[in-house]
Design a protein that fits this description.
57% helix, mainly alpha, transmembrane helix, single chain, transmembrane, Golgi_TVP15, identical protein binding, globular, membrane
């Protein structure tokens, strides 16, 4: 019973990832003038490249080591962190940071909403149940 189609999340994640990669690449030019902004760009790239990559292929080990990419709350918080990281520089970086921040807040709202179903790439590989499923037979029978 999802109000938002799953295609929206794929488009949103790819667009945020691409916008943030471009913003982080533009911050890499500060290597000689401001080392702090350059280091933030490196962290921005490290956080934004997996966002785009996860929309096409989900590595099996990534769910174990970076599970925040597989929930609305984790992704929302990482988008907010990423927006703060990439917002240094020109007007493009500020706009990209604002857009990423707004989408991060939206993902946090989606986490607490009952009407939004998580996308297929948020589920752990090999598991048929996801977080929030009530299909578990919980009889509390002791053997």
């Amino acid at each position: 019973m999802s109000v938002i189609p799953p295609k929206f999340f794929k488009i949103a994640n790819i667009s945020i990832g691409c916008i943030d990669i471009i913003a982080a690449l533009s911050q890499l030019t500060y290597i000689f003038t401001n080392l702090n902004v350059f280091l933030l760009a490196v962290y921005g790239l490290a956080l934004s490249v997996p966002i785009v990559y996860l929309e096409f292929k989900v590595p099996s080990n990534l769910y174990r080591y970076a599970s925040f990419y597989f929930s609305f709350l984790g992704r929302g918080l990482s988008y907010i962190l990423l927006s703060l990281i990439i917002s240094f520089g020109g007007i493009y970086n500020i706009l990209a940071g604002m857009f990423t921040f707004i989408l991060g807040v939206a993902f946090i709202v989606f986490h607490f909403s009952q009407f939004v179903e998580e996308p297929a790439n948020f589920r752990a590989p090999g598991s048929s149940l996801s977080i929030g499923d009530d299909d578990i037979d919980d009889d509390d029978d002791m053997i």
